[in-house]
């Protein structure tokens, strides 16, 4: 418990060095160099992990951060995603591996800082939840808990950037959730699903396609199983207006569902590519989806 109490203390007391610009440049340089080397994940104590998380977080949410980015020679308008921090904790039956991405190079510094702050906050919250859960388990002297987070750049073209972040929690069983962000790099705009369409007709059109596609897939492959109306699980009927999505490098719309959301757990995260021909009359333009 002392370690866990020290974690909270470190979160509250960590101070940010004044030489921000130099620190920003150094952290970016080191992060990029680390990506080129064989990856070695340090196993830190909870306290040191918290301190590092706060240090990195404070740099990225600072107004000076975007200015420091633009002052680095050679970057120009290049938009890049890199690992700003990796934390690994290994305490007997409790493990955590948290990887935090960061974006640099967006002309819209407010959007860039907002995304980077969000990514840091996501892992900070998970670390705090992990702390609380293992504290309870240690009190009763039993339990296993693991958490793993990371990210993947799905699309990185001159126009678009799509980033997927995953969270895997391992307790009595394992479950995975995904989060996606798609950015118009040319205009520094975060794209939402509703923003792609003229009105909300897309909800019914996409939902109908997915329902039919589920039935088609199950008809040709008996190992595929989506939820049906069996009194225990509910048959898929409609997507959410802000359903998770991303756009591929070939400008196709992918609708995504988390594990257990529309299918049995063994199916994992489920995605559907939506044919552009059923969307073209609904789209605001063909700038992103074509």
From TrEMBL:
Keywords, comma-separated and alphabetical: Membrane, Transmembrane, Transmembrane helix
Record carries keyword Lipid metabolism: no
Residue ranges occupied by any DUF3298 domain in the UniProt entry: 196-276
Transmembrane helix keyword on record: yes
Native source organism of the sequence: Planococcus versutus
InterPro entries: DUF3298, PdaC/RsiV-like_sf
Pfam families: DUF3298 (PF11738)
Membrane-spanning segments: 44-65
Name the record gives this protein: Anti-sigma factor
